Amino acid sequence: MIKKLSLVAVLALTACGWHFKNNEVLPESLRTLTLESADQHSEMSRILRNQLQLNDVKLVPSSVNVSKLRLVSTSTNSKVVSVFKQAREAEKILTLNVEAIADIPNKGQYPLAVSAHRTFFDDSRAALAKSAEKEMIMKDMYEQASRQLIIKMAALKKELSK
After folding, report:
1. CB 119 within 8 Å of CB 137
2. Direct distance between the N- and C-terminal alpha carbons of the chain, in angstroms, rounded to an integer
3. What is the rounded CA–CA span in Å between residue 162 and residue 156?
4. Domain residue ranges in the chain
5. 3-state secondary structure at position 42
6. What's the pTM?
7. How many C-alpha atoms does 118 have within 13 Å on its Cβ side?
8. Of 11, 30, 111, 132, whose CB neighbour count within 10 A is largest?
9. How far apart are the C-alpha atoms of 119 and 130, rounded to whole Å?
10. Of 160, 123, 144, 112, nearest in space to 44 by CA
């Protein structure tokens, strides 16, 4: 009975278009901003732009009284954590580090730093397949880092209300 009631509740909520209002979590000063990056067409910039738009952030061209989110650096790193019997690399930990600065007029600059980690099983016998898998993992890490940046921007709400 509980399963049926839960199913009905889930179907009712998804059918009516109900969803969380994420834009109310972000401070008012960060709901309209300019996204700046050294490479506007990089994978990280593109995914961050999409995540901001999904969270109802209005992206505008640069102007004086608009907050700026400046993507400072994106770096990747990998460490070997296990090897095959033949002393070849087997498993790696991939790390993505992203640094950004939220520059809010009349409030100041707030540095934001996030990182994402994934494990990757590297088998040189299937190099082409592993290359495609690694690209998919990296894209997933960019999306996770973008969501973490938005969460950190939401955490600025207390700082900005002072």
Report:
1. no
2. 50
3. 10
4. 26-161
5. coil
6. 0.78
7. 18
8. 30
9. 13
10. 144
Strand ranges (E), 26-126: 32-37, 58-59, 67-83, 89-104, 108-121
From the centroid of its chain, how far is CA 37? 15
Token readout for 128 is 């082409």
CATH 3.40.50.150 corresponds to the domain 26-161: no
Q: Which amino acid is at 65?
A: N
Q: Distance between CA 97 and CA 137 in Å, rounded? A: 14
Residues 48-51: contacts with CB under 8 Å, at least 24 apart: 48/142, 48/146, 48/149, 50/146, 51/143, 51/146, 51/147, 51/149, 51/150
